[in-house]
Structures are given as structure tokens and as C-alpha cells.
Description:
Elements: E1 2-6, H1 14-21, E2 25-28, E3 42-47, E4 50-55, H2 80-92, H3 98-108, H4 116-130, E5 137-139, H5 149-160, E6 164-167, H6 177-182, E7 186-189, E8 191-192, H7 210-217, H8 221-227, E9 229-230
Parallel strand pairs: 1-2, 1-6, 2-5, 6-7
Antiparallel strand pairs: 3-4, 8-9
Amino acid sequence: MIVSINQPAYLPWPGYFSRIQASDLHIVLDHVQFEKNSYTNRNRIRTAQGWTWLSVPLKTKGRFGDLAIHQVEIDAGRDWPAKHWGTLRQNYRKSTHFAAHAHFFEALYARPWQKLAGLLEAATGYLLGAFGIRTPLARSSGMAVEGRKSELVLNLCRSAGAKVYLSGPLGRDYLDEAAFRQAGIEVRYHDYAPPTYAQAYPGFEPGLSAVDLLFNQGPDSARILATGAQP
Length: 231
């Protein structure tokens, strides 16, 4: 079984989905410490001027360092849902496949979200379905596994019964491959080069949220996702 592991992200980029697409099981690493200025609560979308951030405001003041991702709460006192939905609609309303998915996103931003993890799960789950990816997901917060960095990843793989761990490229900097070999688990690296495709505006901006791919390419998105994976 091929297992991949990644922290949850807000409207993740195509490479996130490509790795899940290549896995038999994906573990959402949601019990580790929330990191400020990460992609956990923000991502980029295309605009006529280039790109812009969509950031979900959080209740983390004075609490950085003691909050796991699955514990983080959204700051409901700020009208971010209307801003995010309005920004998506303004910049993608003319995209070929936006209308097919607009109802979901309008409903997503109409819900009174309390926990960030719930929002991320709903949005990512929809995108997985839209891309035709049926890989099952598990949450690390429900697996009772301990450790840090390479040891944590190895323990999660053991718990899941992995034969292959499909790591992102940054794993080369910290994974103890000898420990994985000793455990009978092969380590593979998923290098991803964002494929180009027609966007809503002239030119191509790489590394955007996968909603950009979906709204512009629709049913062809799954094929395009796969072309970015490097052997």
C-alpha cells in the first residue's frame, strides 16, 4: 500500500492533489502544531493583476505554539466568507467551468464555520471528488501515534500498514531513510512540476490553488494533475 501524508491546506495547490491521486491512502496530518503564515489557512488565486491571497482569519492571538491544527478556531467576527466568495466570483465568473461548481462554493461560504479543520475537510473533499480522486483519507488526530518529524511519519506509516511512503520533495531534508528500510517501508519522492494550462487571464501563474485549474479546465483537470508528477 502506498501512503502519503500532508498537513491540511486551504484550497490546496494541484501538487497536493497529485500526491493523493498517486496514493492508496492519504493521512491528513492534523494533530501537529499550527504554523503561522503557512498554507493551512490561506492560498492564492488568479486575478487580472496577477494573483491575490485568500486568507481565513483565526483565533490564535497569544496561542501560537500550543494549538494543533485540528484545534484551531476561525474568527467568526470578521466577514471573510463574503470576501472569499466575492473574490472567487469576480475573478472566475467568466471561466468555462466556474458555473458548474459555483453552487458548492456559495454554500460553503454560507455555512457558519467554527473549526478550521471542518472548513478544510469540506473544501478538500469536494475538490477530490471534482478531480475524480477516490483515495481514502485518515486523520492523524485519530490514530494515537507519537513522535516528531521522521519518527512521526514512520510511525504513521507503520500504523497504516504502508509498504511505500510517498513523500513530498522536502522529505529529502529530514527523513531517516535507513529507519524506513529497517521497517520494510520503501520511501519514494513525489516531485511535482506545475503543468501549464489556459487560465482566465493572459499568461500563466504557477502554484495557485487547485480551484484555478478546476474552474478553467473542468473534467480535464484530473489528466492535467497527473502530468505534473515527475518520475
